[in-house]
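Box 3.1. Reading complex inputs
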Amino acid sequence: DQQVKQNSPSLSVQEGRISILNCDYTNSMFDYFLWYKKYPAEGPTFLISISSIKDKNEDGRFTVFLNKSAKHLSLHIVPSQPGDSAVYFCAAFGNEKLTFGTGTRLTIIP
Amino acid sequence: DGGITQSPKYLFRKEGQNVTLSCEQNLNHDAMYWYRQDPGQGLRLIYYSQIVNDFQKGDIAEGYSVSREKKESFPLTVTSAQKNPTAFYLCASSWDRQKPLHFGNGTRLTVT
């Protein structure tokens, strides 16, 4: 039972354009959401988070949007840069633990 | 320079042998976690510990064991009972429940 889903395994975006990564969840008890970035053979690094009481959080080039009624969140990266090429995981916190999605591999095309 | 150290980076074992993966943190975090990453399955929680001498099973604890004798250390033992032990194992820590996890760089375990 996959409670956090990232339905796009991969995404390619031109450098300078906007990258939009999507994530859906099923558990209405989730109250805190995070995005992590992961390079091969390394641990994930935290990017940005959002509490369920907000619908938007922005940090530099990264913005996370939360639509609670649709149980959907998205990560926008503007403008996309070559160093953004990585696997992105969304994660949701509930029941004292963090549940991760399956990841989306983002490739930025120069 | 604070962080989480996982060792070794690569580990090879024969089937039927137990193996222990090391995780040490100097961030003074109370909570520590073990995740497993398999292709196409994201990160799955094996065990977690919120304080010393206490730990709880995650979603896929069967075939694994942990200990938390010191705040800084949370070793994971992959036992011979684990059916598919070959994977990338990640250790993480955090201040408390709603603070982002800090991850180590992982240990890739290969069992043949």
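In summary: The CA atoms of residues 15 and 112 of chain B lie 6 Å apart.
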